[in-house]
Specification:
- It is a single chain.
- The chain is mostly helical.
- It has 2 domains: 1-54, no CATH class; 57-162, GMP Synthetase, Chain A, domain 3 (2-Layer Sandwich).
- The protein is built from 6 helices and 3 strands.
- It has helices at 27-53, 57-69, 72-76, 103-110, 122-143, 157-162; strands at 83-87, 90-95, 150-155.
- It has a 3-stranded mixed β-sheet with strand order 1-2-3.
- A hairpin with a 2-residue loop joins strand 1 (83-87) and strand 2.
- The longest helix has 27 residues, at 27-53.
- It is globular and about 60 Å long.
- It starts with 26 loop residues before the first helix and ends in a 9-residue tail after the last helix.
């Protein structure tokens, strides 16, 4: 006589507490257990990935300062400036542009109605200047926070990838 299964994960139990089926001979219960293990492992890996990529508390504080102290123009800007990390007294902020990814690529995503390929287009010039203004304002807010002596800019690769902009490899 086989020992009864104490816990069956089968939603349509063919093996259960009252049947005489061993857990190892109940293929469906064993298969569902594997599925739950896979889900648990994937959830664990997702949690580890989030923890690794999550900014530290100081970065979150500085980003919150940008959100709280920013002008209405900065708050309404479609790209949200954030502090990616803090290295000593230097805050590393994300930017959607640099020499590897020119401003027109990010501005094409931020302002899809504007022809960003024409450098002489007055609308393009205006949004390019606006990007510079809000970026400078975000930098000034971070520099005004205690313990921050410098700000450096790093390409916001995650944001660019999410918006399907080709991102060059890190050098």
């Amino acid at each position: 006589m086989r020992s009864p299964v104490l816990f069956c994960l089968n939603p349509f139990p063919s093996c259960c507490l009252y049947c005489q089926v061993d857990i190892f001979s109940c293929g469906e219960a064993f298969k569902l257990k594997k599925i739950y293990w896979v889900v648990a492992v994937l959830a664990f890996l997702y949690g580890i990935d989030w923890y690794i990529q999550a900014p530290d508390s100081r970065s979150r504080e500085l980003t919150a300062a940008i959100e709280a102290k920013g002008s209405p123009k900065l708050k309404a800007y479609p790209y949200k400036f954030r502090v990616m990390r803090v290295d000593g007294a230097t805050a590393v902020m994300g930017t959607p542009r640099n020499f590897d990814v020119p401003a027109f690529k990010a501005l094409a995503v931020l302002y899809p109605d504007i022809n960003t390929k024409d450098a002489n287009n007055p609308a393009f010039i205006a949004v390019e200047q606006l990007l510079g203004e809000v970026q400078s304002e975000a930098r000034a807010i971070v520099l005004a926070q205690p313990g921050v002596k410098d700000v450096t800019w790093e390409l916001d690769r995650e944001w660019l990838r999410k918006h399907f902009i080709e991102v060059p490899e890190k050098r």
